[in-house]
Amino acid sequence: MIQFYAPDITTTLTLPESDSQHCIRVLRMQCGDVIGVVDGKGHRFSCRIVEPHAKHTVVEIIDTLEISPVWSNDITIAIAPTKNIDRMEWCVEKLVEIGVNRIVPLRCQHSERKEIKFERLEKIAVAAMKQSLKATLPRIDEMMPISLFLEECATLKNVQKFVGYCDSTMPRRLLAKEYSAGSDVVVLIGPEGDFSHEEIKAAINAGFIAITLGDNRLRTETAAIVACDTCHIINQANS
Q: Where in the chain are the domains?
């Protein structure tokens, strides 16, 4: 199944230019053909092409389905983007495929990348959502200082909060043993140079539990994926 993405499909009845081009020029869909369209808000529409056009294909909606995420809890991964932006983009793609509700790029003391192109990450997230047949687009934040995100998280209730880091001189617990199935969760993943001691202490003061993901030393982007998938595996094992 090929999905198209049109966030305003119910009001415009038109595919965006990029999806119109793929639909008409690449797939050679024609008037009367039925296609699947998602709005990123949890809806999948069966649509019939009324006016095929490479820039603005017009459709009519013939059926609507609500497609909820297959997981019921809320998963937020806050990660310091890698110096190599390709690895961060790959991370976003895989997190969306696995299943995540929010991705927060963090600016940390040891960050080697201070800026990101939000539009590029969102485009990758949209493609991953369509490819993995999901109908809900995760929230992707603009990059923010870790201190600002910790302030936001300090007031969260009924949410498990974890901070993962490599420094073995500071006590940590295993995420797979600490995470409670079905709980909303926020996981902090640091930059290549790890969180500073001050950032770790600030996270713990904000209610985060210090965790490790196991005995293997993982790259930043790999750690984010392992953390997200660990929560999914525990939830599925206890469903």
A: 3-66, 75-237
Tokens representing 221?
A: 């982007």
Domain 3-66 matching CATH 3.90.228.20: the answer reads no
For the chain, give percent helix, strand, coil, nearest 5: 35, 25, 40
Question: Looking at the domain covering 75-237, what would its CATH class be?
Answer: alpha beta
pLDDT digits (tens, 9 = 90+) for 94-147: 999 999 999 999 999 999 898 999 999 999 999 999 999 999 999 999 999 999
The model scores a pTM over 0.85: yes
For 12-34, letters b (16+ CB in 10 Å) and e give: ebbbbeebbbbbbeeeebeeeee
Taking the CB of residue 165, how many other CB atoms lie within 10 A of it? Answer: 21
CA distance 93 to 129: 8
When pLDDT is cut at 50, 70 and 90, the band that residue 166 belongs to is confident
**Taking a C-beta distance cutoff of 8 angstroms, is the pair 189, 80 a contact?**
yes
Report helix angle 85-98 to 220-237, nearest 10: 10
